Amino acid sequence: MSASTIELLPNHLGGQRHVGTGAGTTLLDPVLGDALVRVDATGLDLPGGFERVRRQGGAALRALTYRERAGLLKAVAQVLQAGRDAYFALSTANSGTVKNDSAVDIDGAIYTIGVYAKLGEALGDARVLADGEFVALAKGGAFGSRHVQVPTRGLALCINAFNFPSWGLWEKAAPALLSGVPVVVKPATATAWLTQRMVQDVIDAGVLPAGALNVVCGSSAGLLDALQPFDGLSFTGSADTAALLRRHPAVAERSVRINIEADSVNSALLMPGATPGSAAFELLVKEVAREMTQKSGQKCTAIRRVLVPEALYGAAAEAIGARLARVTVGNPRNESVRMGALVSRAQFDAVQAGIAQLQGVAETLHDGRGAALVDADPAVAACVAPVLLGSRDPDQHALLHTTEVFGPVATLMPYRDLDHARALVARGEGSLACSLYGEDDDAAADALAATALDLAAVHGRVHVVTPAVAALHTGHGNVMPQSLHGGPGRAGGGEELGGLRALNFHHRRAAVQAAPTVLSRLTPPTPPAA
């Protein structure tokens, strides 16, 4: 099949449909190797399109109240719910995911939109957010100051990673749209089909103002050049690319606001006092195996380092390996398969190279790559079975704490005491998430709370699991819209979600100084806490 006979997906920018004029990039099924569709952004007038987005989409959104914009989000969710079956099919074809993993992406996105619709409803019929109380600047309070947050007058450019083409779009877009800021999404090329289809479905449904939601598929060339001072840039991807973005004139000279989520070598920590087979021990084992295999390990929040007391190293290796040995890998269309593919052969090669690199400083505790794939050709399919590595001396190898292999790979390491464990976790130089596993008694709760606060300094989120919440906790790697997503240092230093906190990125804080009679008319009562 020639490239010209493969469907070329249109871009949507500033209320207009654009078909790229170049050869484009062909998207492939990562299991079967079949050509699916093409994407291309050649020939787009990005500066002109961005200006239409700001002028048309931005103005129309800002004219609405938070309650009215919440209604738009509800309508978006209804459109996506109606297309859910088609999105699952696209996810299987373009991302190689089993049904449960597709649900994490697609249903997680619809749920996130719903959460922000409810938050917006609670904000009521306002167009500005209060930020703090009146502060007197003159005797008797006759003159004072009030801080407000107003929607930015620019657009939100969202550059997303390949692993969550649905959730990655909507976890960024929902808070922006609720804030009154139009969105331009640039999905990762390899899995752009699902993102493009969702945007196109919402645009075709006419539930948003023209120019409020836009998608550009293909090359990212020129996107940042078209950004202006009041725009925002939200990026999820590698630390190397993030470093380039920080140096771009749009950010360095025009002060475009930027939020980055980059590499993260996340940890799971089994607290002291656990024993083989204890409730906390089994909870850790179960969660590590799930995190290694969900989305084939292609999650920015996935567990990469597993820390256990020294005496439990062997038992943990055996228990985790036993769970991983039961995971069937191959074609997600086969109902017996529990883990599908990586998104591409390029990612397959990167993961294999990363495993080999870590094997240079760690022992191999479990390697499922010797098992046959189910209904898949190993020469074609981008499937990698789970690999558990281990190091009995994690202090000696910085590579274990700084290298993220973006696949079904984790490294087990022992610690001497809790101080040693916390030091090892901190060597990740900033991560998105850390999970702690302990018991429910008072002494254990004290230690868990103290450790959680200590590790909060180097993480965006600390997830504490005890037997009492075994069937209730949301999972180490699941990002809930009510909680913060982001992390310091290596993780990019950004913040997304966290309830109403996400709106801060899309608003500008300003102080208005005036008489109380004027200030009292600026905003409605302070909204509920995030």
Automatic annotation (TrEMBL):
Pfam family, one: Aldedh
Protein name: 3,4-dehydroadipyl-CoA semialdehyde dehydrogenase
Keyword flag Transmembrane: no
Key words, A-Z: Oxidoreductase
Example GO molecular function: oxidoreductase activity
InterPro entries reported for this sequence: Ald_DH/histidinol_DH, Ald_DH_C, Ald_DH_N, Aldehyde_DH_dom
Domain of life: Bacteria
Top EC class for this record: oxidoreductase
Native species: Sphaerotilus uruguayifluvii
Domain spans labelled Aldehyde dehydrogenase: 60-450
EC number: 1.2.1.77
